[in-house]
From TrEMBL, chains A, B:
Segments passing through the bilayer: none
Phylogenetic classification of the source organism: Bacteria, Pseudomonadati, Pseudomonadota, Alphaproteobacteria, Hyphomicrobiales
Pfam family, one: FAA_hydrolase
Organism expressing this protein natively: Bradyrhizobium lablabi
Name of this protein: 2-keto-4-pentenoate hydratase/2-oxohepta-3-ene-1,7-dioic acid hydratase (Catechol pathway)
Keyword terms: Metal-binding
Length: 261, 261
């Protein structure tokens, strides 16, 4: 199933995408729900951010090429993680599919995309095991972990480099039925392919991360875990359109614009 | 005004603390509200977590003694921040006044408290200035930034060292009328004073932080900014009760217990 949060005729609700139609749903996917009689053409609705997570987890370094490129730029040897460790992103930065990423007036030209698989949690969970880790997963969406690399180097931590308003596009919807091993992530800038990797070529995959996180953390319905990215990005400038495509989910598309002040 | 989230007779709502009574309020402090006729004795209600912030901001190093003690332990020279920079904490870790901090079964004995002033945002705000920064502040509460120091040294980032379930007590209520310059933070373990500092002796205070954050971030009603701590903590063990008292707000009290597995 493909769950879409959308607005039509001034009303925001959940729906199910079926072909080029959206079937309106009463309730929400994490609780009670039922299909309504009403449908809309997908092209006519405003796609909304699927959810604001209670806690917004994000893996920093989880693919070998990305690690090596980061180390090469820093003039260091890649330090491959020996266990799954997590970071956080900030809810203020989330925007929906087709909403604009606003490049802050004070940012440098080092604006990069990072195309990521985002795991959406559906059930409250703690102390899961390898055998039952997937039982808390509701589905998958796509994230763009937009980054300002000059700030990333200059600052203590990742506060503004990763979390400035609009730096976290997520969507367009949540797909519940995927085959992780068959998925490919493809990134395009203005229609031209600039990145590609096998989505599940992670150093630590979804199961090891859920097992490790739930040793310490209760996962809640609506929490998201962004799984990291591979490769590197060219510098993105105002006017560029970035598309992140993941097989079986769809395409997250956002235009980058300059902040007007 | 002193805003309390509480449960009485199975119903959770907002209220106003007036002396030893709680006046029930309909609505919530960030929107429309009105006083109800119903009152309860403060001692008879269950104090709840005041709120779950949309984004949970926390300052890492904001007092000189704490910086110096951290540097001494690491065998380095204190690196005093030259500008306000922020970090994040995770919503899963929040608990209320009088709820138990559960020390994970795999933690070491290096469990420390950090008593902190927590700023509660009341209005959506961006690009504030020194002159109008305080206009977005609703009030203040108290946070205990519980930390596992062995994990803090061993891990990439602060994920489990600072954000394990129950590691972020916050409360007991939100006080809207305070005089920052007159406030003192006092910490007691099992009734014995173990820490004390002037609450507003920060390297960067509330105004510079709000000015800097709102250059990049939209603050939302219910967001919190924990302002950091001074001094050091003894090792806290199961059975200990930690109280953090801030003049004009009140006392946040939590017992530490061992995880049962």
């Amino acid at each position: 199933m493909r769950w879409l949060k959308f607005t039509a005729a001034g009303k925001t609700s959940w729906g199910l995408v079926e072909g080029d139609k959206v079937v309106t749903v009463s309730g929400d996917p994490f609780g009670e729900w039922q299909r309504d009689a009403q449908t809309h053409a997908l092209k006519d609705v405003k796609i909304e951010l699927p959810l604001i997570p209670r806690t917004f987890y994000c893996v920093g370094l989880n693919y070998l090429k990305h690690l090596k490129e980061a180390a090469d730029k820093a003039g260091t040897v890649p330090n491959v993680p020996d266990r799954p460790e997590i970071g956080y992103r900030a809810q203020n930065a989330l925007i929906a599919h087709d909403e604009d990423v606003v490049i802050p007036a004070t940012a440098t030209e080092k604006i990069h995309y990072e195309g990521e698989l985002a795991v959406v949690i559906g059930k409250k969970a703690k102390h899961l095991t390898e055998a039952n880790a997937m039982s808390c997963v509701f589905g998958y969406t796509i994230g763009n972990d937009v980054s300002e690399r000059t700030w990333q180097k200059a600052d203590r931590g990742l506060w503004r480099s990763k979390n400035a308003d609009t730096f976290k596009p997520m969507g367009p919807w949540i797909e519940t039925d995927v085959d992780l091993d068959k998925m490919e992530t493809t990134i395009r800038v203005n229609g031209k392919r600039t990145g590609h990797f096998h989505t599940n070529d992670m150093i630590f995959g979804v199961v090891p991360f859920i097992v490790e996180l739930t040793k310490y953390f209760t996962l809640w319905p609506g929490d998201v875990i962004w799984m990291g990215t591979d490769g590197a990005s060219p510098d993105i400038k105002a006017g560029d359109v970035v598309e992140i495509d993941i097989t079986g989910i769809g395409t997250l598309r956002n235009k980058f614009v300059a902040e007007k002040r």
